[in-house]
Amino acid sequence: MRTTLAKIKTAASVALALALLLSGGLETLASSHREAPLISADPRADATDLYAFVSPDRPDTVTLIANYYPFQEPGGGPNFYGLGDDVLYEIKVDNNGDAKEDISYQFEFKNSVANKETFLYNVGPVGSLTDPNLNVRQTYTLTKVEGGQRTVLGADLPVPPVHVGAKSTPNYAALSATAVKTISTSAGDMKTFAGQVDDPFFVELGGLFDLLTIRKLPGNAGGGVDGLGGYNVSALALQIPLASLTSNKQKPASATDTNAVIGVWTTASRRTTRVLSSDGMHTQSGDWVQVSRLGAPLVNEVVIPVGKKDVWNGSKPVDDAQFANYVTNPELGGLLKGLYGIKVPPQGAFGSANQRDDLVAIFLTGVPGLTKPATVAPSEELRLNLGVPVTADPKPMGVLAGDNQGYPNGRRLADDVTDISLRAVAGAVYPIFHKDFTPDATGLMLGDGVDKNDAPFLTSFPYLATAYGGFDSSPHPQAAIQAMAKTLNQLVLAVQKLMMTMKK
Fold this sequence. Notes:
Strand content: 15-25%
Mean pLDDT: 89
Low-confidence stretches: 1-30
Radius of gyration: 24 Å
Number of domains: 2
Protein backbone atom coordinates (compact mmCIF):
# COMPACT_ATOMS: atom_id res chain seq x y z
CA MET A 1 0.00 0.00 0.00
CA ARG A 2 1.31 3.37 -0.91
CA THR A 3 2.71 5.43 1.92
CA THR A 4 0.64 8.42 0.75
CA LEU A 5 -2.37 6.67 2.28
CA ALA A 6 -1.06 7.16 5.78
CA LYS A 7 -0.05 10.81 5.50
CA ILE A 8 -0.41 13.87 3.36
CA LYS A 9 2.64 14.44 1.24
CA THR A 10 3.43 18.08 1.87
CA ALA A 11 2.52 21.01 4.07
CA ALA A 12 1.05 22.67 1.00
CA SER A 13 -1.37 19.81 0.43
CA VAL A 14 -2.33 19.94 4.11
CA ALA A 15 -3.13 23.62 3.81
CA LEU A 16 -5.10 23.06 0.61
CA ALA A 17 -7.12 20.18 2.05
CA LEU A 18 -7.96 21.98 5.28
CA ALA A 19 -8.94 25.14 3.42
CA LEU A 20 -11.29 23.19 1.20
CA LEU A 21 -12.81 21.31 4.10
CA LEU A 22 -13.31 24.35 6.30
CA SER A 23 -14.92 26.21 3.41
CA GLY A 24 -17.83 23.74 3.58
CA GLY A 25 -16.91 21.27 0.87
CA LEU A 26 -17.58 18.24 3.05
CA GLU A 27 -20.94 19.32 4.41
CA THR A 28 -21.98 15.69 4.94
CA LEU A 29 -21.79 12.21 3.51
CA ALA A 30 -24.91 11.05 5.37
CA SER A 31 -26.86 10.65 2.13
CA SER A 32 -29.31 13.44 2.95
CA HIS A 33 -29.49 13.65 6.73
CA ARG A 34 -29.36 17.32 7.81
CA GLU A 35 -27.80 18.25 4.47
CA ALA A 36 -28.76 21.94 4.26
CA PRO A 37 -28.97 24.79 6.80
CA LEU A 38 -32.73 25.43 6.62
CA ILE A 39 -33.95 21.86 6.38
CA SER A 40 -31.73 20.76 9.28
CA ALA A 41 -34.08 22.81 11.50
CA ASP A 42 -37.16 21.13 9.99
CA PRO A 43 -36.59 17.37 10.40
CA ARG A 44 -40.16 16.28 9.61
CA ALA A 45 -39.75 17.67 6.10
CA ASP A 46 -36.16 16.48 5.66
CA ALA A 47 -35.79 13.72 3.05
CA THR A 48 -32.97 11.36 4.03
CA ASP A 49 -32.81 8.78 1.23
CA LEU A 50 -34.57 7.71 -1.95
CA TYR A 51 -34.60 4.17 -3.35
CA ALA A 52 -35.94 2.84 -6.66
CA PHE A 53 -35.61 -0.77 -7.82
CA VAL A 54 -37.49 -3.49 -9.64
CA SER A 55 -39.10 -5.58 -6.88
CA PRO A 56 -37.09 -8.81 -6.48
CA ASP A 57 -40.12 -10.95 -5.56
CA ARG A 58 -42.56 -9.14 -7.90
CA PRO A 59 -40.49 -8.23 -10.99
CA ASP A 60 -43.54 -6.84 -12.76
CA THR A 61 -43.51 -4.00 -10.24
CA VAL A 62 -41.10 -1.29 -9.14
CA THR A 63 -40.56 -0.29 -5.50
CA LEU A 64 -40.10 3.39 -4.65
CA ILE A 65 -39.09 4.37 -1.10
CA ALA A 66 -38.66 7.91 0.21
CA ASN A 67 -37.40 8.23 3.78
CA TYR A 68 -37.85 11.29 5.98
CA TYR A 69 -37.16 12.57 9.52
CA PRO A 70 -33.53 11.61 10.26
CA PHE A 71 -31.88 10.40 13.46
CA GLN A 72 -34.96 9.08 15.25
CA GLU A 73 -33.76 7.97 18.65
CA PRO A 74 -36.02 4.94 19.29
CA GLY A 75 -36.63 5.89 22.92
CA GLY A 76 -37.51 9.49 22.05
CA GLY A 77 -40.82 9.80 23.91
CA PRO A 78 -43.26 10.86 25.10
CA ASN A 79 -43.78 12.76 21.83
CA PHE A 80 -42.59 10.10 19.45
CA TYR A 81 -41.82 10.65 15.79
CA GLY A 82 -44.41 11.08 13.09
CA LEU A 83 -44.60 12.69 9.67
CA GLY A 84 -45.99 16.20 9.49
CA ASP A 85 -49.71 16.79 9.02
CA ASP A 86 -48.70 20.21 7.66
CA VAL A 87 -46.28 18.83 5.04
CA LEU A 88 -47.02 17.64 1.50
CA TYR A 89 -44.77 14.68 0.66
CA GLU A 90 -44.37 13.60 -2.96
CA ILE A 91 -42.57 10.95 -4.99
CA LYS A 92 -42.23 12.20 -8.56
CA VAL A 93 -41.55 10.33 -11.81
CA ASP A 94 -40.21 11.65 -15.12
CA ASN A 95 -40.82 9.00 -17.79
CA ASN A 96 -39.68 10.83 -20.94
CA GLY A 97 -36.39 12.48 -19.92
CA ASP A 98 -37.57 16.10 -20.11
CA ALA A 99 -36.71 16.83 -16.44
CA LYS A 100 -40.37 17.48 -15.62
CA GLU A 101 -42.64 15.32 -13.50
CA ASP A 102 -45.16 13.22 -15.41
CA ILE A 103 -46.53 11.40 -12.38
CA SER A 104 -46.61 12.37 -8.72
CA TYR A 105 -47.67 10.29 -5.73
CA GLN A 106 -48.72 12.56 -2.87
CA PHE A 107 -48.87 11.64 0.83
CA GLU A 108 -50.88 13.84 3.20
CA PHE A 109 -51.09 12.93 6.89
CA LYS A 110 -53.68 13.48 9.60
CA ASN A 111 -53.09 13.23 13.34
CA SER A 112 -55.59 12.46 16.09
CA VAL A 113 -55.43 12.07 19.88
CA ALA A 114 -58.00 9.96 21.70
CA ASN A 115 -57.35 11.22 25.25
CA LYS A 116 -55.77 14.64 25.64
CA GLU A 117 -55.69 14.33 29.43
CA THR A 118 -52.82 11.82 29.52
CA PHE A 119 -49.16 12.28 28.62
CA LEU A 120 -48.99 8.71 27.34
CA TYR A 121 -48.54 7.81 23.69
CA ASN A 122 -50.32 4.55 24.49
CA VAL A 123 -52.24 3.68 27.66
CA GLY A 124 -51.57 -0.05 27.44
CA PRO A 125 -50.25 -2.73 25.10
CA VAL A 126 -51.09 -2.13 21.43
CA GLY A 127 -52.04 -5.30 19.60
CA SER A 128 -53.60 -3.88 16.45
CA LEU A 129 -53.80 -0.69 14.42
CA THR A 130 -57.26 -0.02 15.89
CA ASP A 131 -56.39 -0.95 19.48
CA PRO A 132 -58.08 1.52 21.88
CA ASN A 133 -54.87 1.59 23.92
CA LEU A 134 -53.20 3.55 21.12
CA ASN A 135 -53.73 7.17 22.12
CA VAL A 136 -51.89 8.99 19.34
CA ARG A 137 -52.80 7.93 15.81
CA GLN A 138 -51.85 8.92 12.31
CA THR A 139 -53.48 8.19 8.95
CA TYR A 140 -52.76 9.36 5.43
CA THR A 141 -54.32 9.96 2.05
CA LEU A 142 -52.47 8.75 -1.06
CA THR A 143 -53.17 10.66 -4.28
CA LYS A 144 -51.84 10.13 -7.79
CA VAL A 145 -51.46 13.18 -10.03
CA GLU A 146 -50.95 12.54 -13.75
CA GLY A 147 -51.78 14.69 -16.76
CA GLY A 148 -53.41 17.29 -14.55
CA GLN A 149 -55.80 14.71 -13.06
CA ARG A 150 -55.90 13.89 -9.35
CA THR A 151 -56.93 10.38 -8.34
CA VAL A 152 -57.27 9.49 -4.67
CA LEU A 153 -55.86 5.96 -4.40
CA GLY A 154 -56.58 5.55 -0.71
CA ALA A 155 -57.93 7.59 2.22
CA ASP A 156 -57.57 7.06 5.97
CA LEU A 157 -54.75 4.60 5.35
CA PRO A 158 -53.20 3.55 8.68
CA VAL A 159 -49.75 4.42 9.92
CA PRO A 160 -48.47 1.88 12.46
CA PRO A 161 -47.49 3.22 15.88
CA VAL A 162 -43.81 3.74 16.54
CA HIS A 163 -41.94 0.87 18.18
CA VAL A 164 -42.20 1.96 21.81
CA GLY A 165 -41.00 -1.28 23.38
CA ALA A 166 -41.87 -4.90 24.21
CA LYS A 167 -44.63 -4.02 26.69
CA SER A 168 -46.25 -1.28 24.65
CA THR A 169 -45.88 -2.72 21.14
CA PRO A 170 -45.38 -6.50 21.43
CA ASN A 171 -44.97 -8.42 18.18
CA TYR A 172 -44.09 -5.16 16.50
CA ALA A 173 -42.93 -6.66 13.19
CA ALA A 174 -46.32 -8.31 12.71
CA LEU A 175 -48.15 -5.15 13.82
CA SER A 176 -46.20 -2.99 11.37
CA ALA A 177 -46.84 -5.45 8.54
CA THR A 178 -50.60 -4.95 8.89
CA ALA A 179 -50.11 -1.36 7.72
CA VAL A 180 -49.13 -2.61 4.25
CA LYS A 181 -52.21 -2.03 2.12
CA THR A 182 -53.06 -3.23 -1.38
CA ILE A 183 -54.75 -0.91 -3.89
CA SER A 184 -56.31 -2.17 -7.11
CA THR A 185 -55.45 -0.24 -10.28
CA SER A 186 -56.10 -0.79 -13.98
CA ALA A 187 -52.48 -1.92 -14.40
CA GLY A 188 -52.64 -4.36 -11.48
CA ASP A 189 -52.34 -4.28 -7.70
CA MET A 190 -50.04 -1.76 -6.04
CA LYS A 191 -48.99 -1.67 -2.40
CA THR A 192 -48.39 1.19 -0.02
CA PHE A 193 -46.80 1.62 3.42
CA ALA A 194 -45.99 4.63 5.56
CA GLY A 195 -44.40 4.28 8.98
CA GLN A 196 -41.34 3.96 11.16
CA VAL A 197 -38.54 1.58 10.14
CA ASP A 198 -34.86 1.06 10.82
CA ASP A 199 -32.83 3.64 8.91
CA PRO A 200 -31.51 1.56 5.98
CA PHE A 201 -28.62 3.87 5.11
CA PHE A 202 -25.24 2.73 6.40
CA VAL A 203 -22.29 5.11 6.54
CA GLU A 204 -19.31 6.16 8.64
CA LEU A 205 -20.31 9.56 10.03
CA GLY A 206 -17.79 10.27 12.77
CA GLY A 207 -14.71 9.80 10.61
CA LEU A 208 -16.03 11.45 7.46
CA PHE A 209 -17.08 14.53 9.41
CA ASP A 210 -13.65 14.60 11.07
CA LEU A 211 -11.82 15.98 8.03
CA LEU A 212 -12.71 13.03 5.79
CA THR A 213 -10.97 10.48 7.99
CA ILE A 214 -11.05 6.84 6.89
CA ARG A 215 -10.46 4.75 9.99
CA LYS A 216 -8.85 1.83 8.17
CA LEU A 217 -7.29 2.99 4.93
CA PRO A 218 -8.16 2.82 2.11
CA GLY A 219 -11.65 1.82 3.29
CA ASN A 220 -12.37 -1.41 1.42
CA ALA A 221 -11.70 -3.77 4.32
CA GLY A 222 -14.20 -2.71 6.97
CA GLY A 223 -13.21 -0.94 10.16
CA GLY A 224 -15.82 1.83 9.92
CA VAL A 225 -18.53 2.69 12.43
CA ASP A 226 -22.11 2.94 11.17
CA GLY A 227 -23.20 6.34 12.45
CA LEU A 228 -26.84 5.54 11.71
CA GLY A 229 -26.83 2.15 13.41
CA GLY A 230 -29.68 1.86 15.89
CA TYR A 231 -31.62 4.85 14.59
CA ASN A 232 -35.05 4.79 12.95
CA VAL A 233 -36.54 6.81 10.11
CA SER A 234 -40.01 7.37 8.61
CA ALA A 235 -40.62 5.64 5.29
CA LEU A 236 -43.01 6.28 2.42
CA ALA A 237 -43.03 3.13 0.30
CA LEU A 238 -44.91 2.20 -2.87
CA GLN A 239 -44.86 -0.93 -5.00
CA ILE A 240 -46.26 -0.02 -8.42
CA PRO A 241 -46.90 -2.04 -11.61
CA LEU A 242 -44.23 -1.21 -14.19
CA ALA A 243 -46.88 -0.36 -16.78
CA SER A 244 -48.19 2.43 -14.53
CA LEU A 245 -44.92 4.34 -14.73
CA THR A 246 -43.78 4.15 -18.37
CA SER A 247 -44.69 6.81 -20.92
CA ASN A 248 -46.53 4.32 -23.17
CA LYS A 249 -48.17 2.47 -20.24
CA GLN A 250 -46.54 -0.79 -21.27
CA LYS A 251 -44.12 -3.00 -19.39
CA PRO A 252 -40.69 -2.60 -21.07
CA ALA A 253 -39.84 -5.57 -23.27
CA SER A 254 -36.13 -5.28 -22.49
CA ALA A 255 -33.46 -2.94 -21.16
CA THR A 256 -33.15 -1.36 -24.62
CA ASP A 257 -36.85 -0.46 -24.81
CA THR A 258 -37.12 3.28 -25.50
CA ASN A 259 -39.62 3.57 -22.62
CA ALA A 260 -37.58 1.59 -20.10
CA VAL A 261 -35.86 4.45 -18.24
CA ILE A 262 -37.59 6.58 -15.64
CA GLY A 263 -36.24 9.32 -13.37
CA VAL A 264 -37.40 9.61 -9.76
CA TRP A 265 -37.09 12.23 -7.03
CA THR A 266 -38.93 13.10 -3.83
CA THR A 267 -39.96 16.46 -2.41
CA ALA A 268 -41.54 17.91 0.71
CA SER A 269 -43.46 21.19 0.69
CA ARG A 270 -44.91 23.56 3.26
CA ARG A 271 -47.49 26.33 3.04
CA THR A 272 -46.17 29.85 2.46
CA THR A 273 -47.63 31.22 5.70
CA ARG A 274 -47.61 29.83 9.21
CA VAL A 275 -49.25 31.73 12.07
CA LEU A 276 -48.43 30.97 15.70
CA SER A 277 -50.71 31.92 18.58
CA SER A 278 -50.11 32.22 22.31
CA ASP A 279 -52.40 29.26 23.07
CA GLY A 280 -49.95 26.85 21.44
CA MET A 281 -51.96 26.50 18.25
CA HIS A 282 -50.82 27.32 14.72
CA THR A 283 -52.41 27.56 11.29
CA GLN A 284 -51.06 27.34 7.74
CA SER A 285 -52.27 28.99 4.58
CA GLY A 286 -51.13 29.89 1.07
CA ASP A 287 -49.51 27.92 -1.71
CA TRP A 288 -47.24 24.93 -1.22
CA VAL A 289 -43.52 25.79 -1.32
CA GLN A 290 -40.92 23.07 -1.82
CA VAL A 291 -38.44 22.89 1.08
CA SER A 292 -36.74 19.52 0.45
CA ARG A 293 -35.65 17.63 -2.64
CA LEU A 294 -33.76 14.37 -3.12
CA GLY A 295 -32.93 12.18 -6.11
CA ALA A 296 -29.58 10.42 -6.40
CA PRO A 297 -27.73 10.08 -3.08
CA LEU A 298 -24.99 12.46 -1.93
CA VAL A 299 -25.63 15.22 -4.49
CA ASN A 300 -26.71 18.06 -2.20
CA GLU A 301 -24.37 16.69 0.43
CA VAL A 302 -20.99 16.65 -1.36
CA VAL A 303 -21.60 18.25 -4.74
CA ILE A 304 -23.62 21.39 -3.95
CA PRO A 305 -21.72 24.03 -1.90
CA VAL A 306 -23.10 25.25 1.42
CA GLY A 307 -24.22 28.59 -0.02
CA LYS A 308 -26.44 26.84 -2.59
CA LYS A 309 -27.84 23.96 -0.53
CA ASP A 310 -31.08 25.68 0.41
CA VAL A 311 -31.47 26.84 -3.19
CA TRP A 312 -31.08 23.23 -4.31
CA ASN A 313 -33.79 22.04 -1.94
CA GLY A 314 -36.24 24.52 -3.45
CA SER A 315 -35.26 23.89 -7.07
CA LYS A 316 -36.66 21.66 -9.83
CA PRO A 317 -34.72 19.26 -12.07
CA VAL A 318 -35.58 21.31 -15.14
CA ASP A 319 -33.51 24.18 -13.71
CA ASP A 320 -30.41 22.13 -12.84
CA ALA A 321 -28.14 23.86 -15.35
CA GLN A 322 -27.36 26.34 -12.56
CA PHE A 323 -25.62 23.53 -10.62
CA ALA A 324 -23.83 21.80 -13.52
CA ASN A 325 -20.36 23.19 -12.78
CA TYR A 326 -20.41 21.63 -9.31
CA VAL A 327 -20.91 18.22 -10.92
CA THR A 328 -18.27 18.56 -13.63
CA ASN A 329 -15.66 20.16 -11.35
CA PRO A 330 -16.37 18.55 -7.96
CA GLU A 331 -14.70 19.86 -4.84
CA LEU A 332 -14.45 16.32 -3.48
CA GLY A 333 -11.98 15.46 -6.24
CA GLY A 334 -9.59 18.09 -4.91
CA LEU A 335 -10.01 16.76 -1.40
CA LEU A 336 -9.14 13.21 -2.41
CA LYS A 337 -6.06 14.46 -4.21
CA GLY A 338 -4.96 16.76 -1.39
CA LEU A 339 -5.67 14.41 1.50
CA TYR A 340 -4.68 11.05 0.09
CA GLY A 341 -2.58 11.84 -2.97
CA ILE A 342 -5.04 10.17 -5.32
CA LYS A 343 -4.61 10.89 -9.01
CA VAL A 344 -8.12 12.03 -9.91
CA PRO A 345 -9.17 12.71 -13.53
CA PRO A 346 -8.99 16.23 -15.00
CA GLN A 347 -11.89 18.46 -13.94
CA GLY A 348 -13.38 21.60 -15.41
CA ALA A 349 -16.45 23.73 -15.98
CA PHE A 350 -19.57 22.30 -17.63
CA GLY A 351 -19.08 22.29 -21.40
CA SER A 352 -15.29 22.54 -21.20
CA ALA A 353 -12.82 19.96 -22.49
CA ASN A 354 -12.02 18.93 -18.91
CA GLN A 355 -15.56 18.54 -17.62
CA ARG A 356 -16.09 15.28 -15.71
CA ASP A 357 -18.32 13.66 -18.31
CA ASP A 358 -18.36 10.47 -16.26
CA LEU A 359 -20.06 12.34 -13.42
CA VAL A 360 -22.38 14.07 -15.88
CA ALA A 361 -23.57 10.60 -16.91
CA ILE A 362 -24.02 9.39 -13.34
CA PHE A 363 -25.72 12.47 -11.93
CA LEU A 364 -27.24 14.41 -14.84
CA THR A 365 -28.02 12.43 -18.00
CA GLY A 366 -27.85 8.75 -17.12
CA VAL A 367 -25.25 6.20 -18.15
CA PRO A 368 -25.28 5.52 -21.94
CA GLY A 369 -26.72 2.11 -22.74
CA LEU A 370 -28.11 1.70 -19.22
CA THR A 371 -29.95 4.64 -17.63
CA LYS A 372 -29.79 7.37 -20.26
CA PRO A 373 -33.17 8.05 -21.91
CA ALA A 374 -33.39 8.33 -25.69
CA THR A 375 -33.76 12.10 -25.28
CA VAL A 376 -32.75 13.75 -22.05
CA ALA A 377 -32.47 17.19 -20.49
CA PRO A 378 -29.50 17.12 -18.09
CA SER A 379 -30.97 17.08 -14.61
CA GLU A 380 -30.41 15.38 -11.27
CA GLU A 381 -32.77 12.43 -10.90
CA LEU A 382 -32.39 8.88 -9.62
CA ARG A 383 -32.64 7.09 -12.97
CA LEU A 384 -33.81 3.49 -13.22
CA ASN A 385 -33.99 1.12 -16.19
CA LEU A 386 -37.13 -0.93 -15.62
CA GLY A 387 -36.09 -3.47 -18.26
CA VAL A 388 -32.95 -4.75 -16.51
CA PRO A 389 -33.78 -8.18 -15.04
CA VAL A 390 -33.61 -8.73 -11.30
CA THR A 391 -30.14 -9.88 -10.28
CA ALA A 392 -29.97 -13.37 -8.78
CA ASP A 393 -26.77 -12.47 -6.91
CA PRO A 394 -26.96 -8.74 -6.10
CA LYS A 395 -23.64 -7.04 -5.39
CA PRO A 396 -23.44 -4.02 -3.04
CA MET A 397 -21.05 -2.22 -5.39
CA GLY A 398 -23.68 -2.29 -8.14
CA VAL A 399 -22.56 -1.38 -11.64
CA LEU A 400 -18.91 -1.06 -10.51
CA ALA A 401 -19.05 -4.79 -9.69
CA GLY A 402 -20.76 -5.75 -12.94
CA ASP A 403 -24.23 -5.85 -11.40
CA ASN A 404 -26.24 -3.65 -13.75
CA GLN A 405 -29.34 -3.74 -11.59
CA GLY A 406 -27.53 -1.83 -8.84
CA TYR A 407 -26.62 1.81 -8.31
CA PRO A 408 -26.39 4.04 -10.31
CA ASN A 409 -29.16 2.10 -12.06
CA GLY A 410 -31.72 3.08 -9.48
CA ARG A 411 -30.77 2.27 -5.92
CA ARG A 412 -31.42 -0.85 -3.87
CA LEU A 413 -31.40 -0.90 -0.08
CA ALA A 414 -28.12 -2.83 0.15
CA ASP A 415 -26.21 -0.81 -2.47
CA ASP A 416 -23.11 0.73 -0.90
CA VAL A 417 -23.60 4.16 -2.42
CA THR A 418 -20.94 5.86 -0.27
CA ASP A 419 -18.15 3.58 -1.52
CA ILE A 420 -19.49 3.72 -5.08
CA SER A 421 -19.60 7.52 -5.03
CA LEU A 422 -16.13 7.92 -3.53
CA ARG A 423 -14.63 5.62 -6.16
CA ALA A 424 -16.59 7.30 -8.96
CA VAL A 425 -15.23 10.73 -8.00
CA ALA A 426 -11.75 9.17 -7.81
CA GLY A 427 -12.14 8.09 -11.45
CA ALA A 428 -13.44 4.51 -11.42
CA VAL A 429 -15.87 5.18 -14.30
CA TYR A 430 -13.72 7.72 -16.16
CA PRO A 431 -12.05 5.16 -18.51
CA ILE A 432 -15.44 4.42 -20.08
CA PHE A 433 -15.29 7.91 -21.58
CA HIS A 434 -11.48 8.29 -21.72
CA LYS A 435 -9.83 4.97 -22.54
CA ASP A 436 -6.33 6.39 -22.09
CA PHE A 437 -6.96 7.11 -18.38
CA THR A 438 -5.80 4.58 -15.80
CA PRO A 439 -7.64 4.97 -12.49
CA ASP A 440 -5.59 5.45 -9.36
CA ALA A 441 -5.16 2.09 -7.60
CA THR A 442 -5.97 3.59 -4.21
CA GLY A 443 -8.98 5.40 -5.60
CA LEU A 444 -10.44 2.08 -6.73
CA MET A 445 -10.34 0.84 -3.12
CA LEU A 446 -11.79 3.89 -1.39
CA GLY A 447 -14.61 3.41 1.10
CA ASP A 448 -15.89 4.37 4.51
CA GLY A 449 -15.40 0.92 6.01
CA VAL A 450 -19.14 0.33 6.55
CA ASP A 451 -20.38 -2.23 4.05
CA LYS A 452 -23.88 -3.24 5.13
CA ASN A 453 -26.85 -2.21 7.19
CA ASP A 454 -26.96 -2.91 10.91
CA ALA A 455 -30.23 -4.88 10.62
CA PRO A 456 -31.39 -7.46 8.03
CA PHE A 457 -33.80 -6.30 5.35
CA LEU A 458 -37.15 -8.02 4.79
CA THR A 459 -37.62 -10.24 1.75
CA SER A 460 -40.97 -8.72 0.78
CA PHE A 461 -42.48 -5.25 0.56
CA PRO A 462 -41.64 -2.81 2.04
CA TYR A 463 -38.28 -4.65 2.40
CA LEU A 464 -37.06 -2.21 5.07
CA ALA A 465 -35.83 -3.62 8.38
CA THR A 466 -38.15 -3.45 11.37
CA ALA A 467 -37.86 -0.33 13.51
CA TYR A 468 -35.81 -0.50 16.70
CA GLY A 469 -37.82 -0.45 19.95
CA GLY A 470 -37.26 2.30 22.45
CA PHE A 471 -36.84 0.06 25.49
CA ASP A 472 -34.18 -2.17 23.93
CA SER A 473 -32.46 0.47 21.86
CA SER A 474 -28.75 1.13 22.06
CA PRO A 475 -28.19 3.55 19.16
CA HIS A 476 -24.63 4.36 20.16
CA PRO A 477 -22.97 0.96 20.71
CA GLN A 478 -19.57 2.23 19.66
CA ALA A 479 -19.52 4.62 22.61
CA ALA A 480 -20.18 1.71 24.94
CA ILE A 481 -17.47 -0.35 23.27
CA GLN A 482 -14.99 2.49 23.58
CA ALA A 483 -15.88 2.95 27.25
CA MET A 484 -15.36 -0.76 27.88
CA ALA A 485 -12.04 -0.67 26.03
CA LYS A 486 -10.91 2.29 28.12
CA THR A 487 -11.88 0.50 31.33
CA LEU A 488 -10.12 -2.67 30.20
CA ASN A 489 -6.99 -0.69 29.31
CA GLN A 490 -6.99 0.94 32.73
CA LEU A 491 -7.38 -2.49 34.32
CA VAL A 492 -4.45 -3.86 32.32
CA LEU A 493 -2.28 -0.91 33.35
CA ALA A 494 -3.25 -1.41 36.99
CA VAL A 495 -2.36 -5.11 36.81
CA GLN A 496 0.97 -4.30 35.16
CA LYS A 497 1.71 -1.71 37.84
CA LEU A 498 0.83 -4.22 40.57
CA MET A 499 3.09 -6.86 39.04
CA MET A 500 6.00 -4.43 38.86
CA THR A 501 5.45 -3.52 42.52
CA MET A 502 5.42 -7.19 43.49
CA LYS A 503 8.71 -7.79 41.63
CA LYS A 504 10.36 -5.06 43.66
